[in-house]
Amino acid sequence: MIQGFPSPSAGFHSMRAWLVAAGRSVRGLRRTRLLILPMLLLALGFGCSSHHTDASAPGTPPAITSNPTSVSTVSGRSVSFAITATGAATLSYQWAKDGHDILGAIGSTFTLYQAKVEDAGSYTVTVTNSIGTATSGAATLTVAAALTFTSPMGLAYDGSGNLFVSDMDDHTIWKVDATNHKALVAGSSGLPGTLDGQGGSARFNHPGGLAFDPAGNLLVADTGNHTIRRIAADGTVTTLAGAAGIPGSTDGGASQARFNAPFGLAVDATGVLYIADSQNHTIRMMATNGTVSTYAGTPGTAGLADGTGSSALFDQPNGIALAPNGTLYVADYGNSCVRKVAPGGIVTRLAGQINNAGFADGSGLSAQFRTPVGIALDAAGILWVADTHNHAIRRLAADGTVSTPAGSGGVFGNADGSGSAALFNLPCGIATAPSGSLVVTDVNNHQLRTVTSAGAVTTFTTP
Questions:
Q1: Could you tell me which residues come within 8 angstroms of residue 119 by beta carbon, excluding any fewer than 6 positions away?
Q2: pLDDT under 70 in the chain at which residues?
């Protein structure tokens, strides 16, 4: 054997060892491939599975993921039901009430813009595509009938807890008892006039403010007739002062006195009547013998000036409230202010800015109002203001701080709730109820609303 070269047998053995090792490597690659391939297939399988569970993929039937919600409301309010659904395009919808299809209700949302009592029931929606259908769970609608008026304005409670309401555009006076039964007291619905008489035979012309005298008679500011009327306990209507259809500003005896769109009324414990004579821009006083005098303001002159008697100026004074000490509080509509008239006719501005209507809470003279109509004084000495064109109820504390317990300044609507969640549409009249809560005439919603001192608002409903 030549040194330096392997022998044939050694070469063979080396070659064999190499082939064995190579075989092992090939088998390892095969095993690796067998392991990797299922993993790849599994990954691809997951991708395909994800694609087929897409809720909107072709071949997917409808599925409802959010059912409509039950609602309780009062008549006249907007109510909506809505669902969400998935499924292959294109989805179509059909709403039904008590199992009967509603014509035209073919969207994912269904709205009743002015719910009626007869709209109460069970609402469902069926969703359809080319693959199948799905029907939602039922939502129950409950509708209580609101106690409604044409244009509720003035308010007054009698000693028995009955609430009296002047319906200005209906030319009528109504009584609402403690169980919310509504009964006509005087006037005839929709018929203006000037007649005195018994109950329904009498006629009014846009009656405004109301107040009870110590004898239990209901006094009415018959705004459109420029007169002051009285309704006795038996329903007999008479004219106390002024001349029907003849505006003016003359002081004097009851038959000689003239008014120009009288609105707010307040009576003291002796029977003296105070009148916000709105278009004369004055506060008038009617003594128990019927003599009428001008207490504060200058007849025919609108303005904003503090002072005593005729040196003070108002601009369309509307609602008035009388404190036990003889102080009057006035919703000075045209000036968007609250004024105070101390005994002797001493007038000062209590809240609201000069020539700057708006909406702002704060200390009295920095607060803002927008054409307030109604004002009421509660037993704690707190003033409550129907801030009409701010669609809000404002609170004027004894320290002069103004806040907004109910309503959202400048935002109108029709909703119960607390604070800014409650919505009004031109609140005008306001009165304190025997319970200590407030009652508000919500004119453009044609309703009466209750407001607690904490700002919780509800709506009068029929029994």
A1: 79, 97, 112, 141, 143
A2: 1-53
